[in-house]
Design goal:
This protein has 345 residues and is of the alpha/beta class. The chain folds into two domains: 231 residues, P-loop containing nucleotide triphosphate hydrolases (Rossmann fold, 3-Layer(aba) Sandwich), CATH 3.40.50; 90 residues, Hypothetical Protein Yjia, Chain: A,domain 2. Strand 9 and strand 10 form a beta hairpin. The N and C termini lie far apart (53 Å).
């Protein structure tokens, strides 16, 4: 019997550090042939571009496949399954498949897809890895106490609704075989203890939690878990297990903004911060040209925590067009946000 190709699902909320973790995984793969499937929520595939520009030896672009403008958990039949079949039917199939879900994806529906007859006998889910934003969790962003949440909602009219973000967080942890508490460099001992306690309160079974800065966990730790997750679904409860419950992402929306060359990263951040503060923006990410610079600027942010760096020179024939994706709760005032940032939709 032919040995099944293992697949690893990397899940986690927006900006938790999934892409950084995969970049380090690629650097430490020690010759293992990996194929990457990258899912984006939005029109511009920023995470895929970051990985393609990583410059890691043995990481060819044709081994990276991007599923853009949608959520894997909602499009398994249309997009994901044909992609998996294409990979495993190659003359030289990969040793391991790594799937980065969008920050809005539920991992369990994706794992269920591995029970489809077309791929069940040829691929197995080696493990689900949940990447957690340590500072966000330490700050109590996902409260596990329903009574405390109810009291908070009663005291604040703005919270008088269900929290889809909390449910996503819980579902990602419930499905995980390994949890990575990321951004350890931003946590003191008290915050780390709080984050670990919050994670532990959501885990429904014995799951190892490891800590990392910048997603620096080696491939030897991440790959080879041998969990056969597709055969263990009953042990992974989900808020969306009800077969009659609809799952969509009407709570969220994303849109791109075109930007001209900026004077400096600091100038753009100064415009972004008040916009993020006054609108329900969860995440921003994109590529930007900077006046007087030959390098492309990458900007990523979760809430008001914004990071930027130069990743590579602009290509000689490449249009130096700035592009930023804004992801937030449904109902964003796109015109006001675009005008305040200084771009065009």
């Amino acid at each position: 019997m032919t040995q099944k190709i293992p697949a690893t699902v990397v899940t986690g909320f927006l900006g938790a550090g999934k892409t950084s973790l995969i970049q380090h995984l690629l650097r430490t793969a020690n010759g293992k042939r990996l194929a990457l499937i990258i899912n984006e929520f939005g029109d511009i595939g920023v995470d895929g571009e970051i990985l393609k520009s990583c410059g890691i030896e043995g990481c060819p672009e044709d081994d990276m496949i991007e599923l853009a403008n949608g959520c894997i958990c909602c499009t398994v039949a249309d997009d994901f399954l044909p992609t998996i079949e294409m990979l495993i039917n190659r003359p030289n199939p990969p040793d391991h498949i790594v799937i980065e879900t969008s920050g809005l994806a539920l991992p369990k529906p994706l794992v269920k897809a591995f029970n489809w007859p077309e791929i069940r006998t040829r691929v197995t889910v080696d493990g689900v890895i949940a990447v957690v934003d340590g500072p966000a969790v330490a700050a109590g962003r996902f409260a596990g106490d329903p009574e405390a949440v109810a009291a908070q909602r009663a005291a604040d009219d703005a919270l008088d609704h269900d929290s889809p973000l909390e449910e996503l967080f819980e579902d990602q942890l419930s499905c995980a075989d390994l949890v990575v508490l990321n951004k350890l460099d931003q946590l003191d001992d008290t915050a780390r203890t709080a984050a670990e306690a919050a994670i532990g309160a959501e885990l429904t079974r014995a799951v190892k939690v490891v800590s990392a800065s910048y997603g620096a966990i080696d491939a030897a730790v991440l790959l080879g878990l041998g969990a056969a997750v597709e055969d263990d679904l009953d042990a992974r409860p989900s808020h969306h297990d009800d077969p009659d419950a609809d799952h969509d992402h009407d709570e969220f929306e994303s849109f791109p903004i075109a930007l001209p060359p900026i004077a400096s990263p600091e100038a753009l951040i100064a415009r972004l911060l008040p916009v993020i503060e006054h609108h329900d923006i969860l995440r921003v990410k994109g590529f930007l040209p900077v006046m007087g610079k030959e390098m492309r600027l990458v900007l990523q942010g979760v809430g008001s925590r914004l990071q930027h760096y130069y990743d590579r020179p602009w290509g000689a024939d490449e249009a130096r067009d700035g592009r930023l994706v804004v992801i937030g709760l449904q109902g964003l005032d796109r015109d006001a946000i675009t005008a305040a940032i200084g771009g065009a939709s």
